[in-house]
Amino acid sequence: MDILVTQVFNGLSGGSILLLAALGLALTFGQMGVINMAHGEFMMAGAYTAYVCQQLLGSAGVSLLVSLPIAFLIGGLLGVVLEATLLRRMYHRPLDTLLVTWGVSLILQQLARDLFGTAGVDVAAPAWLSGPVEILGFAFPRSRLFILVLAIVAVVAVTLVLKLTPLGRRIRATVQNRQLAESAGISTRRTDMLTFFIGSGLAGIAGVALTLMGSISSNLGTSYIVDAFLVVIIGGIGQIKGAVIAAFVLGVAQSWIEYSTSASIAKVIVFALVVAFLQFRPQGIFQVRTRSLV
Amino acid sequence: MIPTRARRSLLTAALLSVGLVLTACGSRVDDAGGGAAAESCVDTSGDSVKIGFLNSRSGTMAISENTVFDSLQMAADQINATGGVLGKQLTVVAEDGASEPTVFAEKATKLIQSDCVAAVFGGWTSSSRKAMLPVFESNDALLFYPVQYEGLESSKNIFYTGATTNQQIVPALDYLKEQGVTSLFLVGSDYVFPQTANKIIKAYAAANGIEIKGEEYAPLGHTDFSTIVAKVRDAGAGAVFNTLNGDSNVAFFKEYKNLGLTPATMPVLSVSIAEEEVGGIGVDNIVGQPVAWNYYQTIDSPENKKFVEEFKTTYGATKVTSDPMEAAYTSLYLWKGMVEKANSFAVPDIQAAAGGVTFDAPEGKVTVNGDNHHIAKTALIGKIGPDGLIYTDWSSGAPIEPDPYLKTYPWAGSLSG
Amino acid sequence: MTSIFRSRYAVGIGFLVAAVLLFAVAPAVLTTFRLGLLGKYLCYAMVAVGIGLAWGRGGMLTLGQGVFFGIGAYLMAMHLKLADAGPGAVPDFMALISSEGVPWWWEPFRSGTVTIIAILVLPTLLAVLLGQATFRRKVRGAYFAILSQALAAAFAILLIGNPVATGGSTGLNNFKGFFGFSLRDPANRQMLYFIAAAALLVMVLVARQLMVSRFGELLVACRDGEERVRFLGYDPATVKTVAFAVAAMMAGVGGALFVPIVGIISPNDVGVVPSIGLLIGVAIGGRTTLAGPVLGAIAVAWAETSLSEQFPSGWTYVQGLMFMLVVAFLPGGLASLVKWRRTAKADPPPPPAAEKDLTPEPAGGAQA
């Protein structure tokens, strides 16, 4: 029973981290087909934002909350710059965006090393987030609960934006049929840029959350990018709910397999399961129905 | 479909290559004397002599190895300022190992064959050392390796100035036993050092009545320790023996604290966390935890005061000094001692003269063992203080003779195989 | 397809020049050490030939060539370790960390013949299986790229996680002989270089034959309009699988020769980062051309060695910039500059719209 609760929680927690990392990707990949390998480095930028905020503000409790919106802005701005300078000219070559953004990620990593040093830095967790909290006799780490809540809030916010706002309507229209959306008078250019801003901003928020879990160094992003893309692929493109389910399923699977085998084996098994799953549903859990041939 | 012309050229190419291969055959493996090591091209005729520094200046290990490079550079500058070695100034050729074993092997070859250096200093991970070992043996060159490692190795072409297992892991276990620990949980990264170290720990535990409650490995760079730390907590061991490497330590200790585990309830003894790693982990997350090394910045001796002071003047007041940096610094002085004793830069002369060479290092007096090329050093268990520095808690008292194969320990009989 | 391919003389002369450079000039002017480095670059170039075929011609962006490279390399390394140990004996690194002897699946590779066959067959077989599993299900474009990348990640984890069988993160090294020839003898090292050079030339020839054949045309057709190929009665999955398998075989051979030439193989040489690193040479040289990938791969590897000798961290910036600038602004690679100068008679560089059909449907392009 003990193990059951702990491992389910660890799985959900791992899933929520994956979800935060993948949510922005689901937006940018889903809408524009852009494979942004620099997404992980936007997370890194968010993490370093939290570090800088803490250095400037001192108090751990305030700085973490302050850094959330700032990281969103910084991640978003990086995304917009990337979109406006490079990706804009490449929408007809989605595969090539993968390589271009890979180059961007290499440069951002090296830049982080030159700016902040190769040694990792530390963001102290505020007092209200450190240590465990007792719920029904089980000890849950507060920071993991915080990330779980943060992920849920982010998903709800993104869903509301997509469902209720004019921007959301434009995004959904563009995802479903770009040409038709354009002929209906939607500026897909502006929509693309705003989507990229939100998607990359979410990466910044994910980065802040990650400072509670692990080390803050230049290779922070590389640890998450492959898993995040797997989440998007399993979830199906253009679907937030797919990414949510995929992230939690992957998280729980990873933590259960890890519990009964080892961390290395778990990663390999999870990958094998993903390939097997795509045999049955090559388009992921959910797919947007269109009138395309394939 | 294939035009005959192309088919003909394909055939020609194939024949050509077979012919070339047959004519170019050299010596066989079993030929006596065949394929002898290349002649050394080290040039000692001028008033300077070249040495090579091979550290990862880029990639994941740069975080640690840059500091080793800095202290090597400082030692070289000091030696040059005081007249050099045998009256010759040292010229440093620096290469980047890029945190990849393959690059280490390639750059080592370059330093030996193209740059003709008299000795190479560097390497950090066991992978980098194992990748370089055949290069140094086949070229009959010298490597000074400054990091504690998993033992079970000794090469006449390598001098190991970091601790071997009986100078770090075994004393750490002695310490835990003295503290009354009767059960251990082993956590390590998935590679050769933790695996070998844990083999030794298990043999020691079996002979000393210590129970091993569990053993977990995480892939290098693993960032989610929730499952592993949950296992550690549930196992309820007396202490954790931690051989994790690099960034994984950060995630591990954050998770450890998040689950409410403390040094008082279950101490985590680490063998890969030195002063410069504490900042990245966060002092709050690791204060009070024990570590095992042979040197700390806080050692109170004139040699160390000078070393720390000079390092801070050269590289900045916020810099800290750590065991591998000190071992690297020491290695250059030991090489100097060997060269001066041999009165020659030639590898065979240095090997012959190495035994008994001493140096008053920041960690205390160290002596080279001529048989296994390790050095005798004092083991120190330290505790991490609230200022991020490490303070000695326990000492082996006298330098421990290196025993990389643990031959003098009866319980380790099955290990060296 | 292009004028370059039509003019046999150009190909013949280019080939001859390459042969002279590789077999006569390089050994004469380079030291043993530099010749060894060139040998290493040639191994990368072999992988690049395959990538040019699969990616440039077939539109399959494979980020997992390191896997096939690694399989070839590890097979060769296993054989060399076993041969060094002698009949029935246990290789040195294994004896150090385990007392259980040689794993059963190592045993067949005591035989040199079995090893060579395995090097040719296993990567190819894996590629066929993967190709069938993915292309049949119409997993392609970005999906295929990310899957192949995840495969490379899983492969590296698997290698690191099994130190007893694979040497873990150190990998396998310290080889003394190569099929009975001592690896310490410079004459034998030169022989290895010649083998690599010959293998590369053969692969370039094979690639050219595939490109000018009907298969080559079909492959390009699959890249530019997979559905149309299907409507014409061909099976795009088979065509793509064949190209992918040939690329895998080339990568495997490159890996197998890498081991005796470089003297070490470690998971660092086969994971995600080196797999993507292999692409940049191809992109710079010109992915759709025959010589572009080869020259690009050699040039990039050479630049990496010489730049990293001078500025350790500078190389990362250069590599990143190359990815950004070349792929974004010069998708045809440097070869497209050469082609422009050959006037309008040559085919225009691949129309940008070409890859539209590769978009992960239903997003973006499928509605087009």
Number of domains of chain A: 1
Helix content of chain A: over 70%
Strand order of the largest sheet of chain C: 1-4
SSE ordering of chain A: HHHHEEHHHHHHH
Mean pLDDT of chain C: 86
Total tally of structural domains of chain C: 1
Q: In terms of structural class, how would the helical and strand content of chain C be classed?
A: mainly alpha
Cα end-to-end separation of chain C: 26 Å
Number of strands of chain C: 4
At the third CATH level, what is the topology name of chain A?
ABC transporter involved in vitamin B12 uptake, BtuC
Strand content of chain C: under 5%
What does this structure look like?
The complex is a heterotrimer of chains A (294), B (417) and C (368). Chain A is mostly helical and 294 residues long. Chain A has one domain (2-280): ABC transporter involved in vitamin B12 uptake, BtuC, CATH 1.10.3470. Chain A is 73% helix and 3% strand. Chain A has helices spanning 2-32, 39-57, 60-85, 94-116, 142-164, 166-176, 178-183, 188-210, 222-235, 240-260, 263-280, and strands at 132-135, 138-141. In chain A, a hairpin with a 2-residue loop joins β1 (132-135) and β2. In chain A, α3 runs antiparallel to α8 (188-210), α5 (142-164) packs across α6 and α5 (142-164) packs antiparallel against α8. The model of chain A has no long low-confidence stretch (mean pLDDT 87). Chain B is α/β, with parallel strands linked by helices and 417 residues long. Chain B folds into 2 domains: 48-163 and 305-376, Response regulator (Rossmann fold, 3-Layer(aba) Sandwich); 166-298 and 380-412, Response regulator (Rossmann fold), CATH 3.40.50.2300. In chain B, 41% of the residues lie in helices and 18% in strands. Chain B has 13 helices and 15 strands. In chain B, α6 (192-208) links the parallel β6 and β7. Chain B is globular. Residues 32-36 of chain B have low confidence and may be disordered. Chain C is mainly α and 368 residues long. Chain C has 15 helices and 4 strands. Chain C has helices at residues 3-6, 8-29, 32-57, 65-85, 92-97, 112-135, 142-161, 163-166, 186-212, 214-231, 236-262, 272-285, 291-310, 314-329, 334-341; strands at 172-173, 177-178, 181-182, 264-265. In chain C, the strands form 2 sheets. A two-stranded antiparallel sheet of chain C has the order 1-4. In chain C, strands 2-3 form a two-stranded antiparallel ribbon. Chains in contact: A-B, A-C, B-C. At the B-C interface, α1, α3, α4 and α6 of B face α2, α3, α5, α7 and β3 of C.
